[in-house]
Amino acid sequence: MKVLVGAGSCGFAAGAHKLMDELEAIQDLKFDYEITGCIGMCHLEPIMEVHEGGEVFRFVKVMPEDVKPILADFRNYANNRISVEDADSLVKQPRVVLKNCGVINPEDIEDYINIGGYEAIRNCYESSSPEAVINEIKTSGLRGRGGAGFPTWFKWDAAKKSPGPKKYVVCNADEGDPGAFMDRSVLEGDPHTLIEGMMICGFAIDSDEGVVYVRAEYPLAIRRLEKAIKDARARNILGKDIFGIKGRNFDLRIKAGAGAFVCGEETALIASLEGERGMPRLKPPFPAQKGFWQLPTNINNVETFANVPWIIRNGGAAFAKFGIESSKGTKVFALTGKVKKGGLVEVPMGMSLREVIYDIGGGIVGDRPFKAVQLGGPSGGCVPAQLIDTSVDYESITRTGAIVGSGGMVVMDDTTCMVDMARFFLDFTCKESCGKCTYCRMGTKRMLEILERITNGQGKDGDIELLEELSYKVKDGSLCGLGQTAPNPVLTTIKYFRNEYEDHIYNKTCTAKQCAALIRYEVVADKCIGCTVCAKACPVSCIKGELRKVHEIDQDACIKCGQCFQKCKFDAIRVY
Amino acid sequence: MPYIRVNIDGREIQTYRGHTILEVAAQAGIDIPTLCHDEKIQNYGSCGICVVEVEGNPRLVRSCSTEIMDGMVIRTMTDRIRESRKTTLELLLSDHTGDCKAPCTHGCPGHVDVQGYVGLIANKQYQEALKLIKKELPLPASIGRVCPHPCQTACRRGLVDESITIAWLKYFVADLDLKSGSPYMPPMLPDSGKKVAIVGGGPSGLSAAYYLRTQGHAVTVYEAMPEFGGMLKYGIPLYRLPKDVLKSEVEVIRSMGVELKPNIRVGSDVTLEYLREKFDAVYIGIGAWTSMGIDCPGDQLDGVIGGIQFLTKFAVNEPIKTGERIAVIGGGNTAMDAARTAIRLGAKEVYTIYRRTKEDMPAVDIEIEEAMEEGVVFKFLLSPIEVIGDENGRVKQIRLQKMQVVGGGADGRKKVVPIEGEEEILNVDSVIMSVGQRLKGEGFEELALNKHGYIIADPETFMTNLDGVFAGGDATNKGADIAIAAIAEGKWAARVMNTYLHGNLKPHKDPFYVKREDLTSESFPDVVRELRPHMAHEHPELRKHNFEEVVKGYTEAAAVQEGNRCLECGCHDYFECDLITHSQAYDVKPERFAGEMHKRMDDDDHPFIKRDPNKCILCGQCVRICDEVMDNTALGLVSRGFDTIVKPSMEKNLKETECISCGQCISVCPTGALQERTPIHKPVPVRTTLTTTACSCCSVGCTRDLESRGAMLLRSLPVSGENTVNDGLLCSKGRFGFSAYITENRITKPMVRKDGELVETTFREAFLYAARRAQSLHLLHGRNSVGISISDRYTNEELYMAKKFGVEVLGTNEIFSLGNKKSGLKDVLPYDASPNLLDELTRTDVIISIGGDMMADYAIAALKVKEAVGNGAKLIHLNNRKNKLDDWASRTVKLENNLEFLREIAKYLADHSAKAIRAAGLEDVKASLADVRVSSEAAEIAELYLNAKKAMIVYDGREISLEGEQLIASLCMLSGHIASAREGFIKLRANANGQGLVDMGIDLDSASKYAKIASGEIKGLMVFGEDVSVDAVRGLSFLMVQDTHMTELAKIADVVIPATVMVESNGTITSAERRVHSVSAAVESPTGLSNWEIFKELMNTYSTNCAYAGHEEITEEYSRDMFGYVGLTKAKAADGAVYWPIGQSPQLYTREQLAAHGRYVIPQEGRLFDVVEETNYLKRLFGAFIKEATA
C-alpha cells in the first residue's frame, strides 16, 4: 500500500501539512507514504490517495481526523471520496505537461527515473543529433507556452546557428500573470521534467549551461528544483561527462528573481539575470543572437520545456496528434473566477471554450449566466458569452482580441463589471510597467485614470474614444510585450461591452452593480422585518431603524461596502 | 557590395551597413526628433518619438535603434507618425511640471521677456537688458511709465510679499539708454526693396514701423496729428509721461530710417486707395479717438466732454473751460488721467463717479492711490442718469442713481443693480465722460467693420478685408485696450507683413508653453521676505499744481536690488530644451491627458548640478552617460511605472555619491530636469553667444563652447566632433572651473606700494615704477639680477612677449617658470614633449600608467585609457596610491617612492628586448642595472609590455621626478615601443600651456632659480600668474606681481598688475599632445588691458617701439622662425588639428633619429614621485571651492 498526499503550494495552503503530520504520527507505518505535486484540482485539496494492488482510491478535502478512518477502510470509506464528476473531468484531460504532477514524488529522482525519466536526454546523447532534435520539435509543432506562441524549433534553431564561444539555455519561471500557476505546478510537482527539457535544449543548441529564473515568491518550487538539481548532479545527470559520456556537459543553476512582472519579458529577464534593473532592451538583437552576457541564449518558459522530454520520447508526430493544424499539443490553463471547479487543466488545443468551462470546469458558480472569460491574464483580453464556442488555439483566440498567453482563464458571470475588470487588469500592468518607455509608463497610467473616473461615475463624453486612441498608440509605441499587450483588456471590453462603458458614462449606472460610486443600497420596505442585523453590520452606522420596524439607509453616509446586503437574510436590501 | 541603398522619404540614399535609420537620416539632412538618444551612449529607445514607418512592417519602428537594411523604404513623417509623436509628447508633458516662461511674460500682451531683462538688470547688464526689451517692445521708456503692467500683476513675487516693479525697471534701463547720447539702434537687414505705409503714428503704428524697418523694408508713417505717439502723446498727461521721453523714443525710430509724416490725415489728405497703389503693404493703426458717451438726457449740454477729447485738447493747448467742480464718469485709467489733469488745471472739486466698487475699477491701483492723494473724490456705486443744465444750456448738476451689489454675475464679476428710488444730485460745472472709446473711421469706408464699429482684422494675420491692408491696435476687433496691447499687435502684424512681403504669409500664433498654476503663497517657504526698494515720489501737495513727473525713477542700486528679488520662475533651460522645441513643432495639447502629476521635492545642494525631478521625462540619458561613459553610478532609476524616478545612488544627496561633477548628465538632459547652477550673480535664462575655444584648465586641450551674454560668462559646454580631443565631454574643471571664483574679488586696477601701502594707480604709473626699479637693479647688479617668472596658464603669445620683454628689453637671461620643474626627458630624447597623441591611447594594446590621479586631474585623458581597456587593452597601473584606474587595470602595483620597480623593468627589458633602439649608452645600460634583482611581478609586467604589439606609457609630468622621466624615456627606447603610431608615451602637464612654455624657451628649472633668489643673485623679480611661496622670495629687493586676485605674493609686491584669464584672452596654447589650439576671448577683460597688451605697454615704457595691433601679429611673428611653429598662421587657417612641429608627422621621432640623437640614462637612485607646489591661484581657488561645496 502507498499513500500519496498532494503537497503542492495549493495542497499546503489547504492544510496538507496537517495531513502529513497526522500520517507521520502514525507510529507503525505499514505503508509507503509519499508526497506528490498538484494534480490540478486545487479546489479539492487536500487530496490523499491510497494506492493498493494497482487500484487508486482518491480522497478529497481530507482533514487530519479523516486520515485514520480512511486508512482503516479505504475501499469502502464513502466520505471525502472524489465525485464521479470530478474524476471524469480529470479523465477528459490528456496529459503531457502535467502527466507526472500529482503522480510521482517530485522530491525523489528515482520516481522520475522509474517512469522513464532522463531516457530522452540519454537517447539524445547516445544516438541523436542536434539537428534531429530540432527537427523533432519542428514536427511536433510545439509553440512557446509563455505567451507569444512563437515556434519553439525556430528559436532553438536560431540559437544553434548563432556563433558564440558559449551559449545559454534560460528557463523563464517568472510566472507573473495574476492567477496563473502552471509553471509553479510543474516546478513543484515535476522538476526533473524541466531539467530534462532544458538539457535537451542544451544538446540541441550546443549549450552547457542553463539558468532557471524563478520568482522568489515560489519558495517551494525553488526548494524542490534545488533538490532535483542536486540529486541529478549526484547521479551524474548534470555536470560533466553526463551518464559517463565524454564531452556531454550541462549544468544548471537557479536565479531567484525579485518579482517584477516585466522580468517575464525575455530581455528584461536577461537584464535582471545580469544584475541590472529589470528593464527590457531593444530587439533586435534577439537573445538568440545576443542574450545573456551578450552570448547566444535560448529562453523558453517552464511549460514549453516540460513538453520537450515527452516529445523526444514519443516523437513529434505523436505530440502533433493532439490539437489542430495550427496549434498542436495540449495547453495548461489556470481556470479561475466564477467557475465551479477551478484549478489547473490541461486540454488539447482546439477544444472549445464551452467544453473547458462547462465540461471540465463544471460551469458557473451558482449556475448564473456566463458573461465572459478573460484569457491570457493582464496581457490578454476577454471573450464574451456569444463567442463561447471559440476553439482554444492560438489563432482563434487571437482573432477575438484576446491571447492564449500563459494560460490564465478567468471566468466571469453577470455580476462582473467589465469596465471595472478592465480597470483591474490595467491597474496591474500600470503598476508593473518598468517605467522605461513613454507609452507604457504614461499611456497606461492615463488610461487607468480614465477607467477610474468612469467607474467612479465621473466619465465624460469622449472617454471611450480617448481610451481607444490611447490603447492603439500604447500597443503601437511600447517597447516590449508588456506595454504592447496592456491595452488588450480595455480594447476587448470596449469591443464586446461598449454598452457597459456607455452606461457608466452617460447613464451613470453600473449594470453589474459593482462600481460603488454608481450604486446605492436600499431597504425593501415590505421585506424588512426589522431584525437590526444590517444596522449592526454597517461599519459606518448609517442604517437606522427600531427593532421590528423597517430600517432605513442614510444614503449620504453610506460607503457602499455591501455588508448589509450580504448580511440580510430576507432579501430586504436591494442594490440599485 | 560594401554599400547598401535605402529610400527615406522618397530619396534614394546610399550608405554603409551598421547604421541606424536615425543616423542615416541625419547624414542625409532629414531631421528625426529624439529625446533619449545620444551618440555617446548605447541605444535605449525609451522616449519613442523617433518612430518612423518602414514599408512591410506593420508597426512603427524606433529609428534610433533600428539598423538599416538594404532596400528599406522608410517614411519619417506621415499622419500616423505625427500623431504618435504628438501623443508621446503630450503624455510626457502631462507629468512635466514647470514654467517654460515666467508668468510675467505671459501676462504681458507683448510677451516681452521680463524675467530676462529683470535678471540682466540684476547682473548690471543694462545694455543687454535694453536690447532684450527692444526685441519685443520699441518704446520701453514710455511704456515703462504708462503701462498698467499686467506683467507685474502676474508676478509671483506678489504671492510672497510684493511683486517686482517691472515697469519701473523697464524704464530705468530705457532711460539709461536714452541718456547715453547714443541710444541703442537695432540691427537692420539690408534694404528689401519693399515699401510699407503705416497709417497712424501711435504705439501700434510706431511698433509696426520699427519691426518692419529692422527687416529692411522702407517704411512711411502717416500721422494726422502734428506729433507722433498717438494716445501716448495726446491721451496721457505729462506728469505720467514727460514729452521728452516719448520724443526721444520716436527719434530712435526716425533715425532708423523710418519716414515720419505728420499732419497728414489719411482719408482726407491722401486716400487709402492711393497708399495701396504706392506701397506694397499698408498697416492701419489709427486708434480709437472718439469718447463714448452715456446715453442720458443732457449729455449734449455745454460742459459735457469726452475724456479723450479733454486730454487731447489739453495736450494741444486748446483752451478748455471746465470750471471748479468737475465730475469724471468712469473708472478706467483715462478717467484717472482726466481727473488728475483737472486737479492740475486748478479745479477745486473733482469727483470720480463709478457705478461699481473700488475693487472693480479697471484703473491701476497706483493711479487710484495717487489720484486720492491729490484730492480726487471717489464716488462709488453711482450711475449718472441725467445731466442737468442751466438756462444757458451749460452743465449745472448731475443726477446720479445709487447702485448696490447683489452677488456675483455669470462672468464672475460682481453684479450691481439700481436701488429703486435712491438718487443723488451733485453740483458740477463740467462732466467728463470717460467710459470708453470708439473708432473714428472717416475715410476708411472700404474697410469692413464689426458690429461694434471696429475694423475687422484677422486675429492671426492682422489682414483686413482688403488684400495687403493690415490693421491692429485700438481701431480693430475688440477696440481700445492698453498701449502694450496695441504695440504687440503692431509688432506681430509687422512680422506677418514681413512674411507677406516675401510672398509667404505666415500667421502669428502663440506657441505652446508649459505653465504651472498650482503655486500659492505657501509655495515659497525659503524666500526671504523683502519689500520693494523705495522709489522717490513728488509730494502730492506739490505735484497737484504742476505737470512734473510724479515718480523719480530708480537709482542703479535700487534697480539692481529690485532685479534681485525676481523669483526666477521661468525655466533656465528654456533656450536649450528639446522637449519644448518638439512640443511647439507638434502643436501639442497635453491637457487632454491631465491627471496625476508628481510633486517631488528636491533638496539637493550639489555645487554645480541642479536637479528638478518634476521636469524629468525619464529618457535615462543622465543615468546612462554617468554609467557608460564616465564609469560612475552617481545616478540611477528608482521605482517602477509611473513613479519611476532618477535619483542619486542609494537615495543620497548627489554630492555625497561618487559624482565627479563632470556635468555630462546636464549636457545630455533634454529638459530642464538637470541644469547647471550658473555662476553668475543672478541666474537668468537668456539667449547667449557661443565662443568656441580651448579649455584652460589642464593640458589635455579640450574644446569647449563658452556661453556669454554681455560681460557675463554663463556656461562652459563640451564640443563634440572628430576635430576635438574631448568629443563632447568635459571634466568638472573644464565644465565648472571658470566662474564666480574667477570673477569675484578680481583685481582690476594696478597698484603701487607707496609708504608701505599698496595703492591703486594707473597702468602707466605702475609700468613706469616697475621699469625704474628693474632698471636700477640692472645698473647696480647686472642684467641677470632681474628675473621673469611666468605661468604656463599664459598663451603662447603672452609667453613669447614675456620672453621678448626679458631678452630684448631687460636684457636678462633669467626667464623661467617657478611653478614648473626641470624635465628628465631631454636627457634621453631630443625633446621635452609627448611623442604621441592622446587618441592613440584608445587603440594601443598595453598601457602603463605611472603615478598621478588621472581621473581626478585629467579626466578626459583617463577616459581614453578606459576606452582602450574597453577595446581590449591591458592597463598596468603603477602608483603609490589608489585611484579610479584600479577599476580598469588588469595589474595594479603599489610603488614605493623610489626608482626600484622601474629599474627592475628596465633590467628585464635590457635582458630580453630585441627591439631596443641602438642609441648612445645602450652598452652601459646592463652595467648600470647589474645589482638589480628583477621581481616576478616586475618581470611579468615587463614581459607584458615588451611583448605587446603596441604599448604606451602615460604619466603626470608634474608628479614624476626628473630621474623618473629619464627612466620612462629609457624604458620606451629599451622596449622599442616608441617612434611609431600608438607606441610611446604621454606626458600630461598641469596647466593648459605647459608644452607651450617648453616650446617658447622658458626655463623650467625652478629649483636653481629659487636658489639664485635665495643667494641674492636674482634681486628683482617680475612674476606673471604664479602665486609662489612668500618665504621663497623674501630677500628680493623688487617684486612685481601680475595676477587675477590679491594673492599672498601680491600682498608683498612693490607693484601689482591685474591679469587677464584665459577666457578673456586670445591666442594659442600647445597641449600635452603638442596640439596648437586657438584660444578666443568669450568676455572682455575687466581690467581694460589684456596680458599681451600689458607686455607691450611694459616694453614701451622703456621707449621700445613695440607696436603690435593685435595678438595675431605676435603669432605671425613667432611663427616665422620659432622652432616647430613655423607656418602656424597658415596651418591654423586650414581646417583640422595642428601639431607641433608643424608640417611633420603627428608622432615624434623615427628609430633612426633616436639612434642618432637619443641617449640612455639609467639613474641609480632617487625619488619617483615629486611634490610640486600649486602656484596657479585660480586652480587653488577652484579646488578650495569644490572642497568646501562638497564637504
Would you mind describing this structure in some detail?
The complex is a heterodimer of chains A (576) and B (1191). By secondary structure, chain A is of the alpha/beta class. In chain A, 40% of the residues lie in helices and 15% in strands. In chain A, the strands form five sheets. Chain A has a five-stranded mixed sheet with strand order 10-9-13-11-12, sandwiched between helices. Chain A has a four-stranded mixed sheet with strand order 2-1-3-4. In chain A, strands 7-6-5-8 form a four-stranded parallel sheet, sandwiched between helices. Chain A starts with a strand and ends with a strand. The mean pLDDT of chain A is 93. Chain B contains 42 helices and 41 strands. The longest helix of chain B is centred in the middle third of the chain and has 19 residues, at 483-501. In chain B, the strands form eleven sheets. Chain B has a seven-stranded mixed sheet with strand order 29-28-39-38-37-30-31. In chain B, helix 6 packs antiparallel against helix 9, helix 10 runs parallel beside helix 17 (483-501) and helix 26 (796-810) packs across helix 39 (1111-1121). With 1191 residues, chain B is α/β, with parallel strands linked by helices. Helices cover 31% and strands 17% of the residues of chain B. Chain B starts with a strand and ends with a helix.
